[in-house]
Amino acid sequence: VQLQASGGGLVQAGGSLRLSCAASGSTFSIDAIGWYRQAPGNQRELVALISSSGSTSYADSVKGRFTISRDNAKNTVSMQMNSLKPEDTAVYYCNAKGVGVHYGVDYWGKGTQVTVSS
Q1: Residue 105 carries which DSSP code?
Q2: Residue 29, C-beta contacts closer than 8 angstroms, at least 6 positions apart
Q3: Shortest CA distance to 1 belongs to which of 111, 110, 108?
Q4: DSSP states along 3-35
Q5: Measured between alpha carbons, how far is residue 94 from residues 56, 117, 118 in Å?
Q6: pLDDT (tens digit, 9 = 90+) per residue, 41-87?
Q7: What is the mean pLDDT of residues 88-110?
Q8: 108 - beta bridge partners?
Q9: How confident is the model at residue 117, as a pLDDT?
Q10: Measured between alpha carbons, how far is 96 from 93 in angstroms, rounded to an integer?
């Protein structure tokens, strides 16, 4: 499975950005796709995930501000980030969860930088 992320960049506090992730390869071996982030000195943390059935989960810190969506036909996931705060600054990584014989496997894309200035 290959994950190609796009989006990110520099924005002022209160602004918006959109991240996208396209999955390719053995996409039958994955279900949930989403985003983690890692700020300098911090551990990588879950931001949002969406299953193939559309079930979503969000970190408490982004609820009400971020919205994740999915196009199963295109194997793409997008995350709209609104009301961005300086503490949202981090490298964001696309992630996919393996299923079936691949259960427990995490697939990762290259990170994309999101910087929110105050």
Answers
A1: -
A2: 1, 98, 99, 100, 101, 102, 105
A3: 108
A4: EEEEE-EEEETT--EEEEEEEESSGGGEEEEEE
A5: 15, 23, 25
A6: 999 999 999 999 999 999 999 999 999 999 999 999 999 999 999 99
A7: 96
A8: 95
A9: 97
A10: 10
